[in-house]
Design a protein that fits this description.
Blueprint lengths: L1 E2 L3 H10 L4 H4 L2 E4 L6 E2 L2 E2 L3 H10 L3 E6 L6 H11 L8 E3 H12 L4 E5 L2 H9 L3 E2 L8 E4 L16 H10 L4 E4 L5 E4 L2 E4 L1 H12 L5 E2 L5 H11 L6 E5 L2 H10 L2 E5 L6 H6 L6 E3 L2 H4 L1 E2 L3
Parallel strand pairs: 2-5, 2-14, 5-6, 7-8, 7-9, 9-10, 10-13, 14-15, 15-16
Antiparallel strand pairs: 1-17, 3-4, 11-12
Helix pairs in contact: 5-6, 7-8
Length: about 290
């Protein structure tokens, strides 16, 4: 067994799998939770896989639908995981959502559901965070759940507040991501989609915009950071949202079985990834003589 970027690996892949993403792609967009880590625990050898890709000359960006963390939070998280990053390596749904609203209406009055990381990115984008839902121009919905799946204390009344902002104030409805579940250390927990679903059902209204995967909004930011065309890149993920995002953009799709969704479930949804591996390190391996 040889491993990229060993020269023998490349020769084996050229002979056995000429369409392999390591040969086809110059850029890689990695999901984080379930792909590189579970909670605070790294997936075995994930940091090594990223280091080897970089050493092999590949461009790497990290993309996440996690709506609880800011870029500052993730820089600290990646340091704990042993993967060196700078802010421009990180394209998070919190950041992308803040940029979307700020571009559409600079300084907009925003009522938010979610964690401090989302609040931080909204504030950094120059948006005005309001506590009175009747004054809101936008409702931004992220995950109100902590790492155990409980609703955070500071979000105890925020779903009601969001309902009032949308129903009474006619605020625009923007969601950070559509994920129904989220992979945590001890098993899956509810995702942002649980709140989107509740509000949509109560209001008989879908969000005006969903920024995270599989939406093109967040993926376009990642591609612009890589400076590559979609067909030159692969997206590596563990969820249907990752694979759909890649297919919509014309990217190579790489599914890893280390996260929340099984390959059987993925295929039952009619989604066929270009490649599937047990983990990111397996993607770099090839049988060699």
């Amino acid at each position: 067994m040889v491993i990229y970027p060993d020269e023998r690996t490349i020769e084996v892949l050229k002979a056995q799998s000429p369409g392999h993403p390591l040969l086809r792609c110059q850029g890689f967009i990695f999901d984080v939770d379930g792909v590189l880590c579970r909670g605070e625990d790294p997936i075995p050898r994930a940091p090594e896989a990223i280091e080897r890709l970089r050493r092999g000359g590949k461009k790497v960006i990290f993309i996440s639908n996690n709506s609880t963390k800011s870029r500052e939070d993730y820089i600290a998280k990646f340091e704990r995981l042993g993967i060196p990053v700078v802010a421009d390596d990180l394209v998070l749904s919190t950041y992308a959502t803040a940029q979307y609203v700020a571009k559409e209406r600079p300084g907009a009055r925003v009522y938010m559901v979610g964690a401090p990381g989302l609040r931080q990115e909204l504030a950094l984008a120059g948006l005005s965070l309001v506590e009175d839902p009747f004054q809101a121009e936008y409702v931004v919905v992220g995950s109100p759940f902590d790492g155990t799946g409980r609703i955070r204390e500071d979000n105890a009344h925020r779903i009601t507040g969001a309902l009032r902002a949308l129903y009474h104030a006619g605020a625009k409805f923007v969601a950070t991501n559509p994920d129904r579940i989220f992979p945590a250390k001890d098993g899956v927990i509810p995702g942002t989609g649980a709140v989107i679903g509740a509000l949509s059902y109560m209001l008989d209204r879908e969000p005006d915009a969903v920024i995270g995967k599989p939406s093109e909004h967040i993926v376009r930011i990642a591609l612009s950071r890589l400076g590559l065309a979609p067909e030159e890149c692969a997206i590596v993920g563990d969820m249907d949202t990752d694979m759909l995002a890649g297919k919509r953009m014309g990217m190579t799709t790489v599914f890893v079985r280390s996260g929340a969704m099984t390959e059987e479930k993925l295929r039952s949804l009619g989604i066929e990834p270009d490649f599937a591996f047990d983990s990111v390190i397996e993607m770099l391996k090839a049988e060699g003589g």
